[in-house]
Amino acid sequence: MKINTFFKPLLAALVLLLVSISSFGQDAPRPPQSPKVTVTGIFGKANVSVVYSSPSVKGRKIWGELVPYGKVWRAGANSATIIETDADVNIAGNTLAKGKYSIYMLPAEGDWQVIFNTEVGQWGIKRGGETTRNPEKDAFTITVKTAKSDFKEALEYKVVPAGIAFGWENVSLLIPIK
What we know:
By secondary structure, this protein is mostly beta strands. The protein is 13% helix and 46% strand.
């Protein structure tokens, strides 16, 4: 019995030591692969924001491979990219009424389509790889010119005086807003 009373506290201390040592071996949480970003700007009387998840190139070929040409894309990673305005704005001759919209893009080797869709809050793609966009909910679509640009590792939207600038890998475009 004396051995049992001696070893019980020693065994408990050893177990506690092992548990505490193993907790130090845990990895710190990693930052998200495609961090969520919000950009904001003012166009006339409207406050406009774009909320998107920003993936990185990571050595991949983006246009025509990771993001195929001729297939609607969620314009970012994770959930569909969102544009919100607190007043009506003019986008390439179309009125985008006050509210929230999903932005989708149709990449091509030439001009691209930018689609403003009234359905928001959905994940960007389905299991089969197609977007969650419901074409019946499209507010309007505009055609934009793309340009070759300097390499940009992470997808980025920026507010500029003429609208919302988009760039990733070696492609840039402008969504004109007044």
